[in-house]
Design a protein that fits this description.
By secondary structure, the protein is of the alpha/beta class. It contains 6 helices and 7 strands. 37% of the residues lie in helices and 19% in strands. It is globular and about 45 Å long.
Length: 228
């Protein structure tokens, strides 16, 4: 594998909902794809009635496919668990869905939502991702990184729930525009500034994360596991 991120190997990004993956690591995915890494996205949940009608769900999925193609994603996988209802779903069901995709793809690197996110779907998917990646298996992801999702990761309760304190930074100076363009393709999800899910806010976050490592732009991650 060539490129600075070649050691990431086969990558699986686990997204609770469509657009979380772009918000959290769109620039990193673009870099990975550009450097020849096989990069997959698993969207865990699917909207359903009465909150989401079929036309809305189809529209958001079409946006995701367009955004993923723009970033160079190898394949998008839909796990079809109930959106915003994972707390009522047997945990074994969510575990099995994530175990299935991890066993199918055998990723070397896993990107997952952060356990301290405000959205309960994110928290439960974090836990089930770790179940799916348990190291007692013959093959398991050697590297696990948790990403931040604006309006979820930073809306937690300080000192009550875990804070996002990143130790890993990926330089996305050359792929930031790819990320922002991909997010703009989620027309149903983008909001006008100063909403956090605005293009301006995402650019600002990337610039702030970049200054932590003296770069123009970066994405930040919490390292959960790294096996050498």
């Amino acid at each position: 594998m060539t490129g600075a991120l070649g050691s990431f190997g086969r990558v699986l990004v686990i997204a609770p909902h469509p657009d979380d993956e772009v918000l959290g690591c769109g620039g990193t995915m673009a870099r990975l794809a550009g450097e020849g890494c096989e990069t997959h996205v698993a969207v865990v949940t699917r909207g359903s009635l009465p909150e989401f009608d079929e036309a809305t769900v189809a529209g958001i999925r079409a946006e995701a496919r367009t955004a993923h193609a723009h970033l160079g994603v190898t394949r998008t996988h839909w796990l079809d668990q109930p959106a915003a209802k994972l707390a009522e779903t047997p945990h074994s069901t969510l575990n099995a869905a994530l175990q299935g995709i991890v066993r199918e793809l055998r990723p070397d690197t896993l990107f997952i939502p952060f356990v301290g996110d405000m959205h309960l779907d994110h928290q439960l998917i974090f836990l089930s991702s770790l179940v799916a990646a348990r190291p007692h298996q013959a093959e398991y992801p050697r590297r696990i990184l948790a990403y931040e999702t604006v309006s979820e990761t930073n809306w937690n309760a300080p000192y009550v729930t875990p804070g996002f304190l990143p130790q890993v930074f990926v330089d996305i100076e050359n792929t930031l525009d790819h990320k922002l363009q991909a997010m703009a393709m989620f027309a149903s999800q983008v909001r006008p500034f100063p909403h956090e899910r605005s293009i301006e806010a995402l650019r600002a976050l990337a610039l702030v994360r970049g200054t932590r490592i003296h770069r123009s732009a970066a994405e930040a991650f919490v390292l959960v596991r790294d096996v050498f």
